[in-house]
Amino acid sequence: MHPREWGIVARERRHGQSPREGRRLIRREDVGAVAVLTLDNPPLNVLSQAMYQRLETLVDELSESGTIRAVVLTGAGERAFSAGADVKEFPGASDPERWRRQIRYIIGVSEKLAALPQPVVAAVNGVAYGGGLELTLFCDLRLAGARARFALSEVKLGLFPGTGGVQRLPGLIGIARAKELLLRGEPIDAAEAERIGLVNRILPADRLAAESLALAQSLAERPARAVRTIKRLVDGAAGLSAAEQRDREIDANVEIIQTADAREGFAAFLEKRPPKFRHR
Questions:
Q1: Which of 90, 138, 197, 211 is such that its CA lies 20 to 30 A from the CA of 274?
Q2: Catalytic pick from 61, 154, 211, 255?
Q3: Quick one: pLDDT at residue 87?
Q4: Is 264 an annotated catalytic residue?
């Protein structure tokens, strides 16, 4: 998407990059308490090692931010969110240890994205194939333009989606549906992606940027401690017993009830007025 679609050209911030680097890698534009990250590697925003390095830098910045309370991740242009990995870097696979380090690094950066305390909204414009689709699986919510298409086609190359797809897809859409996408390797359209739960909802292409930003802004307006606690509890539940999940929830409940925002929320409810959260 073009930055003008976000209505933020005048407020665009370049974080540690020259204009040329920004166009070729990932842009960050802040809109109030929302950071918009745009994959910008034309024509199809393929994911190179340099892009993952740039993403790691941005994620590290956001993890320490006291002002950014939600994130949007999207792709530049109308053709692609991201068409996947940069195949020009695949020759490195001839060295098994080098390839192991490279894959471990990519997964590590994606896991950092998932571990951000802020909710992350993927705005999928155009195709999200291979590693591009896998990257969306590390986001909290996924919105798709009406012309979006999704595929994990690695099996057609004698491979499999090795940077998060096999790990995360079954938990999102169920084992049977995940196996069908993984084993067949065929693309699906936005309507099918919504039907199986891969995306939260579909939007007209010309409304995707505005609606994604509006969703992120609404999340940023919620009390930050509550939002971060919900994300932490949901994401951390996998692999825990029911008793462990219960105890984590009780501990978090005791902690959050003491916050200034919780007191403000109760007071506003009793006084029948909108709350004024200070995110603490």
A1: 211
A2: 154
A3: 81
A4: no
- Three-state SS across the chain? CCHHHHCCHHHCCCCCCCHHHHHHCEEEEEECCEEEEEECCCCCCCECHHHHHHHHHHHHHHHCCCCCCEEEEEECCCCEEECCECHHHHHHHHCHHHHHHHHHHHHHHHHHHHHCCCCEEEEECCEEECHHHHHHCCCCEEEEECCCEEECCHHHHCCCCCCCHHHHHHHHHCHHHHHHHHHHCCCEEHHHHHHCCCCCEEECHHHHHHHHHHHHHHHHHCCHHHHHHHHHHHHCCCCCCHHHHHHHHHHHHHHHCCCHHHHHHHHHHHHCCCCCCCCC
Prediction pTM value: 0.90
Q: Which of 29, 134, 211, 264 is catalytic?
A: 134
> Is residue 259's pLDDT more than 80?
yes
29 among known catalytic residues: no
